[in-house]
Amino acid sequence: MIYNKLIQERTHTAIYDAASIELYQLKSATELFMDKILERFAKHYQTIYADRTADFLENEARIIFLSFLKPIINGIGNYYIEATSMDGTRTDIVIDYHGHQYIIELKIWHGNTYEQAGKEQLSGYLEKYDLKKGWLVSFCFNKNKEKLVGAHEEKVNERIIREVVV
User: Fold this and answer.
1) What does pTM read for this prediction?
2) Helices then strands (H, E): number in the chain?
3) Does the pLDDT at position 51 exceed 90?
4) CA Rg, the chain, in Å?
């Protein structure tokens, strides 16, 4: 509820408007093109927020991502923040869109070990939801992050994890 209020306050910000402009390239009538959504988010995030401090970005990362996502699914799909599964575990974001579910995990980059643990965690969520693919958005605030930034895909426990590092 609080997230919806914060996101509502951010409509027509640069990140929200960026998604609105590309809306029809990021989805069809029945599904979201999640790989493309995350790649476009990364591009706009780096352009719009490049000059912000790490403290600002770490506190705002989830709201910024949801502000980008909202116009894409608005009125057709739903998203759930910190959704609780039957066993009590909480996923960062679950999106329902025309009968499809998408699970997105948001992490702050704290090194390779932490990154791999995030992928394992997401793989576990995918198994619980009986999904084959999930998405990980890693927010990296290192000064020398250029070699980390980008998108890549790997298999973790028979599940496909698509990670975008911004």
Assistant:
1) 0.85
2) 5, 6
3) no
4) 15
